[in-house]
Amino acid sequence: MNHVAGKLLCLLFLGCVVMANGRENLQKDIFGQEITGSNGKKINFSQSELKGLKVQEAIQNLPLKTAAASQANGLKTPFTAKVDNLFSIMGTSIGRNSMHSLDIDKDGNTELICSASTSGFGTGNYWYIMNYNPTDKTWNQSWTSTVYSSYIKTIEIVDYNNDNNYEILLGFDNGTIEIYDPVTKALMKSYSPVTESVNSIICADADNDGINDIVISCPNSTYVLDATTFTKKFTINKGANYVRVGVLDDSNKNQIVLSSGYIYKLLGTTLTTEWNFNTSGEGYVELSDIDKDNKKEVIFAQSWYYIYVYDADTKTTKYSIKSDLDIQALTMADTDNDGVDELFYGDGQWGEVYCHNSATGALMWSVNNPEHGVTAINYADLNNDGNKELIWGAGWTSTGADYLYIYSKAQSKLLWRSEDIVGPFYATATGDVDGDGKNEIVAVSYESESGYSSGIIVILDAETNQLKWKSNGNFLYEVWTGLYDVCIADVDKDGNNEIVIGAGQTYTGEIWIIDGKNHTIKSNHIFSSPSLSEFYSLTVDDVDNDGQKELITVSSSALYVINPTDWSVKWSVNTGSTYSGTILRSADVNGDGNKEIIVCKSSIMIINSTDHSYWKSTETNYTNFDLFDVNNDGITDIVASTSNGHIVVLDGKTRTSISDFNPETSSIVSVRVYKTGNSIYYIYSSNNKINIYQNDSNCSVSQSLGNNSGDIESMKLYNCQPSSLEIIYGNSIGVHRMYLNIMSVSAGNLTVAAEENSQVSMDINTSKNWTLTIDQDWLKANSISGTGNSTIVFTAKANMWAEKRTALVTITGDGSNSQLITVTQNGATPVLNVSSNSVAIGALQGSTNSIDISSNLNWTAVSNQSWLYLSSNQGTGNLKLVLTAYSNTTIVPRTATITITGTGLQPVTVTVTQAAGAPVLAVSSNSLIITAPANSTKSFSIYSNVGWTVTSNQSWLTPNYSSGNNNGTITLIAQQNVATEQRTATVTVSGTNNVASITIIVTQDAGIPILNLSTNTITINKDNTGSFTIQSNISWSVVSNQTWLTSDVTSGSRNATVTLIAQPNKTSGLRAASLIISGTGVLPQAITVLQDVTSAVDDVNQSPLFIFPNGSDKDIKVNNIAANAVISIYNINGKMMICTTAGSTSATINAANLEKGIYAIRVNDNGSTITRKFVIQ
């Protein structure tokens, strides 16, 4: 590539980068829509264009901001340190959730009180008080709160308790109300009256009882609270963003007005709805008497286009004002001192702030709003010139800058505009930068102008905390990646310190050397050739011992050592690619006489400055570090913090851990070491607090200080004295100075003897007031409070117990860390005695006895037998131990051993002997019933502690065991009872040891009645007889329904054979009779008897006649007959059903029409007759 082509390509690349960046920096509104075109033209939108769009969260490039997590469970004591806000930013959404102008401290000057946000759209999380500076004619923050974990929804300033002083009331989204003193800014009280967001607070007599109330509106309800206790007096089931209270009609009673469109009158506990003046949804509402009739009108601004002025007395609209855009602020203020308020409102997009005559609605004047959207409007004399100024916040509805404007109507000009500085302040440094022989504090912000300009530099007087100089966002040109570090050093050897910053112009590394006196850039260099990416950390030191300090800086992937005289890179080392916060130091950490460069980028790197070799830790959870000789070996150690709450001390020579503490469970973002005397304190930042760790027993936790407190390079120890130090730290809203008094004690653990009035002492070293508390009443101190160094003598009551006991002594001081001292008292000589070593106890269930234990220690008691129960298995001191026994079921005595053990003593044993039990023989039942079938069984249980036998007096009943010992189960087995009567047997259980025998009566059920017949049909043979058999275990009888048929027996019992006798059948056809056989307990049974004509009846067994199939329901075939034979079929009653003549020696008869049953077929063949039976299925 030739030189010209290379230049053109480079220019093309830079142009693309700038265009891309310009595109990224196009301003957008809260819905993410661009509100400035590429030509800079401002864009507004109508309601229909914005309808349905979702508000987007503003996203700041704050790569190291982490959410707060729970602290480790440990012995931590809170302390409240004095903190000065040295420099604070205005934040975003200025005044959106409240803007007030009042002389809150009654010093004759009007203060401006505003809520603000560290980022985002309208979510207030801190607030501040501003005062006028007549010297430079600016308004500055005189006090700034901490950053709250909950959102501030409203601020009200009122004398709610009638003490003639204002109080500042903050309402939060979690339902909490906090009350602050306007002079000291101290939190006076905190209440949680509701569980929903406190949107608005008013102090007024809402229930018309003559006493002021606190009225709060919430999303779902509005509450009237007692102004003394902040408890609920009344609840209105309608919520709103804003609530106002005033007299609106001739009743001269206060009414409650909600921005959701409702007016209520509350008289005591009686609520009436007076009017629903608006049904179009939420808006802004104010009350003002605009027509001087001593009744206030309702001024209501819709979110879009219209402002209505209502006369609530007549329930009419007086007039309306139409706006061009959405309305985002409304207030009433008297601008011309005529006693009537004017109406102010602001546009929600690019627009103006308007002032209207409230009586007529006419526009009086307006002021252009240079930024997008109005947060709030106020009108007050803020500079004591006798004229009121118009104050408004702007920019909250866009990604652009947020400003506070103060405009003079009298002079028709803008008096002041705030600056938009974006935190966090990731770096601070101290030193004399202007050559006045005094130290300054230098800090840098991350960005400015909502990220559209570079971070700023702040120089503060370290003695007075006053601002000496502040750069603007263009001083360091196009630092897109933010400022993370600042150093103070004499780089050019002119005898004066310079301010050195390493960052990047666009995405190329750049270093600035700044004159702290003249506030000019002495020199700077963009590292485009060779091309180095933006820098994230920088330090200044002579690491190669050549007499010239080098600039050591770290980019996202490498460390560079740079010569500041010609900006050449002397050498570099690859550090690994990461954009996490980088910490950079130089020191001799291995004792070789040469300085090493230590880098923390998740891992710890120790880089040798002579051969550029390095060591890198395998752990990747390091967040920050300090350098200090912790173990007094003359070599500097590395004290590092981790993301999982540890503080690790590393030996720079061996690269091993000297010690490892774990004061937190969440990330420790920075750590510094402070030593006074022989005590080492680890000052660390975690969970937005700065804590002081001495050991596991002494860790003091500060109040919450705000997001990003102490991040990266923002926490520095300053003015360290033997008993005090200061901490300069930055966070998301500014630069702060914490004043710490360090309290130390001569010993953290003390031991005192067991005897009465034993004493031990320790020394307190502090310059401030202190207070001492003890958590045990057996230990007393000669003093529980004092000032300065003191000797404390502890006196103990006698310890009667053998065990040691401890007391925790807590010493707290004014604005200092706490000290926790453990006092251990030795135990007395151990004693463990029992009243008896041998005890007898009865044999019965629940028998008891006891022993007395005499002891001065903790003891345990254990029985080696489960049948002996102890009333207590452990105790302390003297006790009557009750012994309870289960029943001794044996016939011999038994023993158990109780072992009583105490620490440091031989166990004591007690033998317990239980008496023998009486001989026992019992059964589970004295009567049993067994069923009739064969092998039926029945069981019973024997309860015994002796031997026993079992016998039966009947052979049909036998036991499965005839003898045994102790408890057992016997099963009785019975033979079948064929009789229909019950039968009984006696079982006798006999025992040894002269116990009485027991008899059991066993009854077997009667057998089931049986009546079985050998057949149910009989055909009388040729000798006119027939027979059948009866099988039965009951009495029975036989009855014939025909006189021609009789039986040889008509009754009987048990089994029998019955013979039938029939008279000759002289009829012309087959005849039938029925026999009925009956018995007790069974159903009667019948036998059908058929008799053919007596003459010419052949023996059926001799006939060749063949009928098949027998059982058919269709055709029946008859074979072996003569031609022309007559075939007749009869039913069981003798009725002829079919008659036909055979055509040959076989015939087929259709039986389909015959019902199911038994039939007889008769064949007449040349004078002979043959009869057979067959069945139709």
What does this protein structure show overall?
With 1177 residues, this protein is mostly beta strands. Helix content is 2%, strand content 50%. It contains two helices and 102 strands. The protein has a seven-stranded antiparallel sheet, with no helix packed on it. A five-stranded mixed sheet has the order 1-56-55-54-53, with no helix packed on it. A five-stranded mixed sheet has the order 61-68-67-63-65, with no helix packed on it. The longest helix has 22 residues. The chain is elongated, with a radius of gyration of 55 Å. The N terminus is likely disordered.
Strand adjacency order, main sheet? 19-20-21-22-23-24-25
Q: Tell me the number of helical segments per DSSP (H or I, 4 or more residues long).
A: 2
**Approximate strand percentage:** over 45%
Number of strand elements: 102
- Distance between the amino and carboxyl termini: 115 Å
Query: What does the overall shape look like?
Result: elongated
Instruction: Report mean pLDDT, rounded to a whole number.
Output: 88
Please mark out the parts with pLDDT under 50 across 5 or more consecutive residues, or reply none: 1-24, 57-73, 1095-1101
Radius of gyration: 55 Å
- Describe the largest sheet: 7 strands, antiparallel
What structural class results from the helix and strand content?
Answer: mainly beta
Helix fraction by DSSP (H/I, runs of at least 4): under 10%
